[in-house]
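Below is how a single chain appears once it has passed through the pipeline. First comes the sequence as given, then the structure the pipeline wrote out for it. We keep one example in the README because the format questions we get most often are answered faster by looking than by reading.
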Amino acid sequence: MSETTLESALRAAATELQQAGIEGAETDARRLMAHVLGLDAAGLILRLKEPLTPDLLADFDKVLKERLERKPVSHITGQREFWNRSFAVGPPVLDPRPETETLVEKALEQPFRRVLDLGTGSGCILLTLLAERDGTTGMGVDISPEALDYAVRNRAALGLEKRAIFAQSDWFERVVGKFDLVVANPPYISIGEMPTLAPEVLRWEPMHALTPGPTGLEAYQLIAAGLAPFLEDGARILLEIGPTQGDDVAAIFTAAGFELVAIHDDMDGRNRVVEVKFPVVE
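Resulting structure:
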């Protein structure tokens, strides 16, 4: 009986994932194998011809089974890459997604001192902004204490304990101070759209972070109505949106007295971030 090498195990796993209808099967198989072996991608490539011990093969089969049950790879490994950093994630938080990096990119285009992150989840947006700009501070709030546990872990991993504050809060309930930059990736999927989501999202990610209600716009209405007391004059507000919501979200904020700066597209050319500005009082 021939021994199982890393390469043959990966090939078999990718085939099984493909047959189950999972996109990116080869990439997923490699990420899972690297996780089991405690290697990075480069280290895995160097060992492809090596035999896989029975214990490690059993561990790999276990995580492969989890992926076949449509558990996200990030929930299996406990980590997700975002803006070239690794963040701890799990079922209580949304996975950081590449399109959210558009929000970070636009926020970094101008200087800021103090950031408010509404619905912070894993803390990836707030912590990335602070890590990229020395001397800045910020506050992240979330209604979920379980989500905040991940944010606190990520804060410690990045050494930002002295610059980031997290608080359990129903939107503005426990927000204190004023901010010159506000960021948010609120729930924006309408109830009617929920059944169209991938099983990885529907089965594993927190419902309250996905949908705010029938229209998908409810969170933006709450933010627009309650934000002004926490803003410095001229503060910038950047909000992630669904690709069809740009005009509606812009209208909600302009009706509340904010000035529209731009609706920014993501890397796929879809509307992704609405940027507005708090007026300067003369």
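The longest strand covers residues 231-240.

See the next section for the split statistics.
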